[in-house]
Design a protein that fits this description.
By secondary structure, the protein is an alpha/beta fold. Helix content is 26%, strand content 16%. It has helices at 16-23, 37-47, 64-68, and strands at residues 10-13, 29-33, 53-56, 74-75. It has a four-stranded parallel beta sheet. α3 (64-68) links the parallel β3 and β4. The radius of gyration is 17 Å and the shape is flat. The model has no long low-confidence stretch (mean pLDDT 91).
């Protein structure tokens, strides 16, 4: 932070022990990676609104509603873009 004032710091955690450690560091946002809904809910309770939380990893359009009910602030759904194929569009002036 001393070298880049104004930049936000986000930390990725994979379990509740890492979350507790991250909460003590003063980061701006915490990404909760590959946690099931029960663990996400515990993480939200543990954070108690101290820092925005983002659920990520293994979340699909079929599971997003259940993840949203856990109370986190953000959800990343890689399934939206993971299998997208690019379309080649061009404009020709004649």
């Amino acid at each position: 932070r001393a070298c880049a004032a104004g930049l936000q710091v986000e930390v990725e955690v994979e379990n509740l022990a890492q979350l507790e450690e991250a909460l003590d560091t003063g980061v701006d946002r915490i990404l909760l990676d590959n946690m099931d809904p029960a663990m996400l809910q515990r993480a939200v309770g543990l954070a108690a609104g101290r820092v925005p939380l983002e659920a990520s990893g293994g979340i699909t359009l079929d599971t997003i509603r259940e993840v949203a009910k856990t109370g986190g602030d953000y959800i990343s759904v890689g399934a939206i873009t993971k299998h997208v194929q690019a379309v080649d569009l061009s404009l020709r002036i004649v």
